[in-house]
Write a structure and sequence with these properties.
935 residues; Methylamine Dehydrogenase, Chain H; alpha+beta; 6 helices; Immunoglobulin-like; five-stranded antiparallel sheet; single chain
């Protein structure tokens, strides 16, 4: 890495490694402050690697004397007998092969093993081969083909039987196509069909390298490269240098080679024709193996370590001058690139355009060029000493003639034969290129937010957008009114561009803002990137930055970085020539091929899970016992290209997306529950991948809040609600019953009395008309009518009416004997003065309602009342000669006396019980507390 690259890298880290605030229960840490997307330093030192492969998930696996190493573009894990964290029963490996979802590893001295890349578990494959040193392993049509020193075996994993195919053979490599197995040796190339158990020599020549495609193999000898397909068709081309290794491209259609000079070649798999490529050559080294991964990176396993080659569509032209600051500007003049230096005037890029005397005309300040613009074979030059012009027809430089043309200029823009000139201290000028006069001057006095104008953008409707040191201004040409637009953030907006009916403003550190034509902010993206001057090419916007070159779609704002530009810090405006974009930077000019690039949706994985110190490969369903457990997730995006540092976001249970600082996400302090974690990441170009990673964190519940016990709580709650509704239903029916009884009682008494009186009167009338000797009957009926008519005026003894309890009970005994011909015996063994007057009234009401109800509804004729005091309670017992009291506790079928007695008992906190007696009688027992009842 050069000193400049190192400085860029350090400055980038200082700017971008900002602390992020913790979420309430999410802790985020980063351990990878490096700029580059791939941390190759963790594996590039491995010099004794024999084989490299990429598994179906996208991880890179390296087999060698160090063991088995997995590289995820962020960190490496080496499985071996010397690694206590990831232990294996072996270390030295010769080969590794993919089979189904497992890896087969060939060891030195420990036989053949099966390795699970998802768990890190390994198990031996019992091949019954005596020699335990295995050099090559390949699976063809479900059969293992095993190369031990000087012998080739086949092993059937279904039967466990190993069979010797050929001995006294020194094998270099074993590969297969869909139809044949191929074995390369010093003697030549052997082939074996699926059903045949004998090797056949098809090419007699020393094979130096071999690689399979889908239906053919590619192999090389000392002088030639061959293609041999399954149908026997053979092609051959010559080559000059020894080829060390071959590998198919990631589409399995073409192939790459590397020779002993370090030169990379690419060929057509069908025709062996040489194909163009953008991979750089490398220094000479012995290459044991090579791989072209699915992200387009070419891996070389050499005796000097692991080498990674990225496609390079860039060409850098070093252009530095003996100046303190090489902030060069470039322009196209008659299809030739020219340079405007920051102190030496105009300079040639390649072809000579200017002679040695051209810059003699400039003043000392005029040699400091800030911008170049070509218009009709004229080159307009913005300098520290105003505006100058170079005429291509006579090769002369002169100062443009208008008053006060001695200002420090910053930017030039042309539209409709008008030149818009942005100055450092005086706003902007509009210069008419036809009349060669200044036709407008706008400054802070006219409403600009600042006199320092950094960029200027005239639109088709006549409005002029411009950036200043304090924001963005819109000058309405028809009215002369200036509208000031505040740009959020502390950094200046330095570049404006119009695309998709929107204005995009690039800033020196706050990313890019999108505005509508009314000046309303629409979107903010690419935050934290320091941009320079943008350019629109074929509907796409190219945005140079410090460092890196970015491009984005103005419709959807999708941003990506051009590969391998992360080491360049760009200045000034870019130019298009010969389908290349030329961009000046501090050490020269970079040429970038203008071509469409496909978005590579890299696979996003949780490469490693740490649960309170215990490590697991990949992600798993995570179960923690308490909220204090710490869950660490190592995130990776499997794009091995050089590029910007990858970014990650996560969300929990489909909530909002939160940024992850770095590649390590640590979760702790989670309350009990189930958390579904979704993670997204970018590829090496900064594009968000459509592939997401997922995991689930289950934090255990306390014993009283487990899912099982919550089901019990739910059932219990349902039962309580059902019981409550049942009691409310009973209460509703009880109240309805009371209303019906009251209504019926009132109606029945009135109607009964009227009806009986009417009937008795009619009977007397009939008896008198018949003049029979029924005087006694008539007299009895008249007495009944008289009694019926006067009964309503007689007061029922249903309360004490100011009398004592004992007196009232005696009166009640006489009353029911006289009226109902019933007997009431009172057995009272308590002093009357210990019972308060309200309680006496309540006791009498209970006795009255109970006896009257039993008499009228149950035909009782004999009652015994007992009242005694025991343990601060009054015990009231009423016995009768039938079962009148048995239904007393019924909550639905009851009468008004029952209801009155219940209410009185509730009022006095009394308990009521009813009992059936053997002699078909029943008993009502009530206990009434005497606390707070004394007079």
């Amino acid at each position: 890495m050069t000193i400049i690259q190192t400085l860029f890298k350090i400055s980038y880290n200082l700017v971008n490694n900002k602390w992020r605030a913790y979420l309430p229960f999410i802790l985020i840490f980063t351990f990878h402050p490096n700029l580059y997307a791939n941390n190759l330093s963790s594996v590039n030192h491995l010099t004794n690697v024999s084989k490299i492969i990429q598994d179906k998930q996208g991880f890179i696996w390296l087999a060698g004397q160090q063991g088995l190493t997995r590289f995820d573009n962020n960190e490496s894990i080496t499985f071996s007998s010397s690694n206590q964290q990831w232990p294996l029963a072996y270390t030295w490996l010769h080969d590794v092969a993919k089979f189904q979802k497992k890896l087969l590893v060939a060891t030195e001295g420990n036989g053949l093993w099966q390795f699970d890349p998802k768990t890190g578990n390994t198990s031996p494959v019992l091949t019954q081969i005596k020699n335990k040193s295995i050099y090559n392993i390949t699976v063809f049509s479900g059969i293992y083909f095993i190369n031990v020193p000087n012998s080739l075996y086949r092993f059937d994993p279904k039967t466990g039987i190993s069979t010797l195919i050929k001995d006294n053979i020194v094998i270099r490599s074993i590969v297969h196509t869909n139809k044949y197995l191929y074995v390369s040796t010093k003697e030549g190339l052997y082939r074996l069909s699926k059903n045949n158990k004998k090797l056949n020599l098809v090419i007699k020549n020393s094979i130096t390298a071999m690689s399979p495609l889908s239906t053919q193999i590619i192999f090389s000898t000392k002088k030639d490269i061959y293609s041999l397909n399954d149908d026997g068709v053979q092609l051959k081309i010559n080559h000059k240098n020894k080829i060390y290794a071959l590998t198919a491209d990631n589409n399995n259609e073409n192939f790459f080679t590397i020779n002993d000079k370090g030169k990379i070649g690419k060929y057509s798999g069908k025709t062996l024709a040489t194909l163009p490529h953008n991979y750089p050559d490398t220094s000479p080294a012995y290459i044991r193996s090579m791989l072209h991964d699915n992200s387009g990176v070419l891996w070389l396993v050499s005796n000097k370590g692991i080498i990674q080659l990225n496609e390079n569509t860039l060409k850098n032209y070093s252009k530095t001058f003996e100046l303190a600051r090489n902030a060069n500007e470039i322009a196209l003049l008659e299809n030739q690139l020219i340079i405007g230096s920051y102190g030496l005037g105009l300079q040639n890029f390649k072809a000579p355009v200017f002679n040695d005397k051209t810059n003699n005309v400039f003043s000392s300040k005029g040699l400091k060029i800030t911008d170049l613009l070509t218009h009709n074979s004229h080159l307009y030059i913005a300098t520290f000493d105003g505006l100058w012009i170079y005429n291509l027809t006579n090769n002369q430089v002169k100062k443009v003639n208008f008053s006060n043309n001695n200002k420090l200029l910053l930017k030039l823009t042309t539209k409709d034969n008008k030149l818009y000139i942005a100055t450092n201290y005086h706003g902007f000028y509009v210069y008419d290129l036809k009349s060669k006069k200044i036709i407008n001057h706008v400054s802070k006095d006219d409403g600009l937010s600042s006199n320092e104008v950094l960029d200027i953008l005239p639109l088709n409707n006549g409005d002029i957008w411009l950036t200043t040191t304090t924001g963005i201004d819109v000058y309405y040409n028809t009215t002369g009114i200036v509208k000031n637009i505040l740009v959020p953030g502390p950094n200046k907006a330095v570049s404006l561009i119009y695309a998709d009916n929107k204005i995009f403003a690039a800033t020196l550190g706050d990313g890019i803002f999108a505005f509508n034509l009314q000046g309303e902010a629409l979107h903010h993206f690419a935050k934290g990137i320091r941009f320079t001057y943008m350019q629109k090419i074929d509907g796409e916007i190219w945005a140079p930055a410090r460092p890196g070159l970015y491009r984005f779609n103005p419709k959807n704002y999708k941003l990506s970085m051009v590969p391998n530009t992360e080491v360049y810090s760009f200045v000034g405006s870019s130019q298009i020539k010969d389908n290349n974009l030329y961009l000046p930077h501090y050490a020269g000019v970079l040429a970038v091929q203008l071509k469409k690039t496909k978005t590579f949706n890299s696979k996003i994985y949780i490469s490693r899970t740490n649960i309170s110190g215990k490590q697991y490969l990949l992600n798993k369903s995570i179960n923690t016992k308490t909220a204090n457990d710490v869950v660490g997730l190592s995130l990776t995006s499997l794009d091995y290209r050089n590029g910007i540092k990858k970014q990650f976001k996560y969300r929990i249970n489909n909530g909002i997306w939160n940024k992850v600082q770095g590649s390590q996400l640590t979760l702790t302090g989670l309350s009990s529950g189930i958390y579904n974690v979704e993670i997204m990441g970018t590829n090496s170009l900064g594009q968000w991948s459509s592939n997401h990673a997922y995991t689930q964190v289950i934090v255990a519940y306390p014993w009283y809040w487990t899912p099982q016990i919550r089901i019990f709580y739910l059932i219990l709650m349902f039962l309580l609600i059902a019981i409550t509704f049942w009691l409310l239903f009973l209460r509703t029916r009880s109240i309805s019953k009371i209303h019906k009884l009251l209504t019926l009682n009132i109606q029945s008494r009135g109607k009964s009395a009227t009806t009986v009186s009417h009937n008795l009167t009619m009977a007397i009338t009939q008896l008198k008309q018949n003049k029979t000797k029924n005087n006694e009957i008539i007299e009895l009926l008249q007495e009944s009518i008289s009694e019926l008519n006067t009964s309503s005026s007689i007061t029922e003894p249903d309360n004490l009416d100011g009398k004592s309890l004992f007196f009232a009970l005696d009166y009640l005994s006489n009353y029911i004997q006289k009226k109902y011909h019933s007997v009431l015996i009172n057995q009272i063994s308590v002093e009357e003065n210990i019972i308060s007057r309200p309680l006496q009234a309540d006791i009498y009401k209970i006795v009255y309602e109970a006896i009257i109800s039993a008499t009228l509804n149950g035909n009782s004729r004999s009652f015994t009342l007992s009242l005694k005091e025991h343990k601060s309670k009054l015990w009231l017992t009423i016995q009768t000669d039938n079962d009148s009291f048995i239904q007393f506790n019924n909550k639905v079928n009851f009468n008004l006396p029952m209801y009155y007695i219940r209410q009185i008992a509730k009022k006095n906190n009394a308990s009521i019980n009813t009992y059936a007696q053997d002699s078909e009688g029943s008993q009502l027992l009530m206990s009434i507390p005497l606390m707070n009842k004394f007079i």
